[in-house]
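Ticket closed. Logging final result for Imidazole glycerol phosphate synthase subunit HisH.
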Amino acid sequence: MAEIIALIDYGAGNLHSVHNALKAVGANVSVTADPNIVRAADRIVLPGVGSFKSCAQGLAAIEGMTEAMTERVLIGGAPFLGICVGMQLLATRGLEHGTTPGLDWIGGEVRLIKPSDPAIKVPHMGWNDVAIMPHARGSAVVEAGEAYFLHSYHFAVTDAKDVAAMTDHGEGLVAAVARGNILGVQFHPEKSQAYGLATLTRFLEWNI
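Final structure:
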C-alpha cells in the first residue's frame, strides 16, 4: 500500500501549489485538517506563507492538530517537512507582529532580516544558492543547488548542529534545518522547478 502523506490544511496560502508538486513526484497526498488522519499518516508536510503569527494562530485554531503532530512526529517518528513559514513554526518563537510561541521543536527564533548593506532589499526574493553545512543532518533530502526564496523573516537557530543548509542575502541566512526525522526548508520546493521536485522526491524516500 502506498504511503499516505498528510498535507496539513490550516489556511496556508501555498497549500495547493505544494499539493500539486507532491502529486507531480508521485506522492499519495491527503490534504487534511483532521488530527486523526495526521496521527495515521506515514509522512507529514506543513506548508506556510504569510506571517509567523497568522500561521501559528491558524494551526492552533484546529483543535487537537498540534497534539496530533507532536504524537506522530516526536513520538511516532514520522518524517516531517516544514516549508517556508511551516519551517519557521518549528522555532521556539517568532518576533513578527509581537512575540508568538512556535512549536519549539528546534530551538531558536524567527527575526526580521536586517542586512548591513542598505542596497540589499527585503524581502529576500528570487533564486539563490543552497549551501549544505558540513555533516548536516537532513542532507539526504536537501542537496546543494539553487532554489526560490520569498521571505522577510529568517530562522535564527540556537544550535548550529540543527542547520542543514545556508543561503546568503547580505548575511548568512538559514535555508534548511534538520533534527532527526524533522526537516524544514525556508525555500519553496513547489516554486523551485527541477531542484524543488528533486527535494520532494528525496523527502518521500527519506528514512531515518
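The radius of gyration is 16 Å. No further action required.
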